[in-house]
């Protein structure tokens, strides 16, 4: 299969790479950084631009987790749970992006 450089494919590859970078940022830097908010704005713009690529529920959960982590007012197991949900969202974005690029039948 030959990779075709279309706008959709290029934006999807960029979103996958940005998601991988965001996983690194979440583990490397404090939670109060503003970069994840820019990431979620890009995810929302991708979702609006290429409708029916990412699930609205997944995007909503990811944005909610990002906002909860940015405006940190929790701790302990609640913080770990929200971080876990955000990591599941990151895994979903990478998996769904690969699914869209490779056109797997499932």
Q: What does the secondary structure layout of this molecule look like, with pairings?
A:
Elements: H1 7-28, H2 35-49, H3 56-70, H4 77-102
Helix pairs in contact: 1-2, 1-4, 2-3, 3-4
Structural class based on helices, strands and sheet pairing:
mainly alpha
Radius of gyration: 14 Å
Helical stretch count? 4
Rounded mean pLDDT score: 88
* Major β-sheet annotation: none
Runs in which pLDDT lies below 50 for 5 or more consecutive residues are none
Strand tally, please? 0
Number of domains: 1
Residue share in helices? Answer: over 70%
* Gap from first CA to last CA: 18 Å
Broad shape = elongated
Q: What's the order of the H and E elements?
A: HHHH
Report strand %: under 5%
Summarize the structure.
The chain is mainly alpha-helical. The chain is built from 4 helices and no strands. The mean pLDDT is about 90.
Question: How would you describe the overall organization of this protein?
Answer:
- This protein has one domain.
- Helices cover 74% and strands 0% of the residues.
- It has four helices and no strands.
- The chain has helices at 7-28, 35-49, 56-70, 77-102.
- The protein starts with 6 loop residues before the first helix and ends with a helix.
């Amino acid at each position: 299969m030959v990779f075709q450089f279309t706008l959709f494919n290029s934006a999807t590859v960029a979103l996958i790479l940005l998601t991988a970078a965001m996983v690194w940022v979440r583990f490397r830097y404090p939670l109060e950084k503003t970069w994840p908010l820019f990431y979620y704005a890009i995810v929302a713009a991708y979702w609006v631009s290429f409708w029916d690529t990412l699930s609205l529920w997944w995007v909503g959960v990811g944005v909610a987790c990002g906002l909860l982590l940015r405006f940190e007012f929790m701790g302990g197991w609640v913080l770990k749970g929200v971080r876990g949900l955000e990591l599941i969202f990151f895994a979903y974005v990478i998996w769904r992006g690969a699914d869209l690029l490779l056109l797997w039948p499932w």
